[in-house]
Design brief:
Number of helices: 15
Strand order of the largest sheet: 4-3-6-5
CATH topology of the largest domain: Beta-Lactamase
CATH architecture of the largest domain: 2-Layer Sandwich
Number of domains: 2
Shape: elongated
Order of helices and strands: HHHHHHEHHEHHHEEHHEEHH
Helix content: 40-55%
Radius of gyration: 23 Å
Strand content: 5-15%
CATH class of the largest domain: Alpha Beta
Distance between the termini: 42 Å
């Protein structure tokens, strides 16, 4: 059923997966892996690391959508035109998964190719014991932030901010927000959430309103759930606007200023900050100060 889930229109699957990528991956991988030991803890950790990036989740869903949409259209067009695969092809499939159980894989794929199709069956279903993260080749065209693996420890640490909010960065954001609040002579509750919308760091300045604790956290989560400033969501949720009533979803959202997404060096949203405790204008100033001072661009290495 996961296949039919991933092909649903954006942003439904992206949003649901992003709420808890680790849980999603744990459930999916345990169901797909039919051979104990085929997936090493190192490989699973690499999956989780990659899925902390919202663009990775989106790209995964888009890949499956294409297979159910334009991929089928192009396949049908080739069938009608009598086109065959002429490039070298080698087919590998799992004997234990649904593909190996329900289809004659070589016969099915062979109809697409004029010559005999080489292939081999694997007993490891989708995964094999070789499914371990590897250091990217020199020809890898993606950025180092996307390609680094746990094997390259030094680079993984340098580019950690490119995939998720580290505690160090969250604390620096909190510090920047507190400094701005002190400059304005106000007391604030400040929350930072990660890419999944889970609380990463929080501080309540001495004397800040208790009622603003929940508001600050909800502002951060709202900004992350929709990847936009809560002030903008407020404009779009007025009567007659496209997001009218959205504040009643997801257990309650905040649709006034003070929640801002946090973006990585490549523009990927990796979390959000929420500030509450003063006027909305002041909350926005404090949140902006944290984002400007502690954006991923400030800490990422070249």
């Amino acid at each position: 059923m996961w296949w039919f889930f991933l092909i649903q229109a954006a942003p439904l699957p992206e949003h649901l997966i992003g709420l808890d990528p680790q849980y999603y991956l744990g459930d999916i991988l345990s169901g797909l892996n039919k051979t104990p030991g085929a997936l090493t803890p190192e490989a699973v950790s690499e999956y989780v690391r990659c899925f902390c990036c919202t663009s990775t989740i989106h790209a995964t869903c888009e890949d499956f959508r294409a297979a159910a949409d334009i991929g089928l259209e192009m396949d049908e067009a080739d069938e009608r035109a009598g086109n065959k695969i002429v490039a070298p092809v080698h087919v590998l499939w799992g004997a234990k998964n649904s593909v190996g159980q329900l289809w004659d894989v070589l016969a099915t794929c062979g109809r697409k190719r004029p010559q005999r199709l080489p292939g081999a069956v694997s007993t490891a279903a989708i995964f094999s014991k070789k499914n371990v993260p590897r250091k990217p080749s020199r020809n890898c065209s993606t950025s180092s932030a996307q390609c680094n693996s746990p094997h390259d420890t030094r680079k993984a640490k340098e580019t950690d901010m490119n995939h998720q909010i580290t505690l160090e960065v969250a604390e620096k954001m909190i510090h920047a927000a507190r400094s701005k609040a002190e400059e304005l002579k106000i007391l604030e509750d400040i929350a930072v959430v990660d890419a999944s919308g889970n609380l990463k760091a929080f501080v309540r300045m001495d004397g800040a309103w208790l009622g603003s604790i929940d508001i600050a956290i909800r502002k951060a989560r709202t900004a992350r759930y929709f990847d936009m400033d809560t002030a903008e969501i407020g404009k779009m949720s007025q009567p007659g606007q496209p997001l009218y009533g959205v504040e009643h979803s997801n257990g309650g959202l905040i649709t006034f200023g003070g929640g801002i997404p946090i973006k990585d060096v490549d523009g990927t949203v990796i979390g959000a900050i929420g500030v509450s405790g003063s006027t909305v204008d002041n909350d926005v100033k404090v949140a902006n100060a944290a984002v400007e001072a502690c954006n991923g661009r400030k800490f990422a290495t070249a």
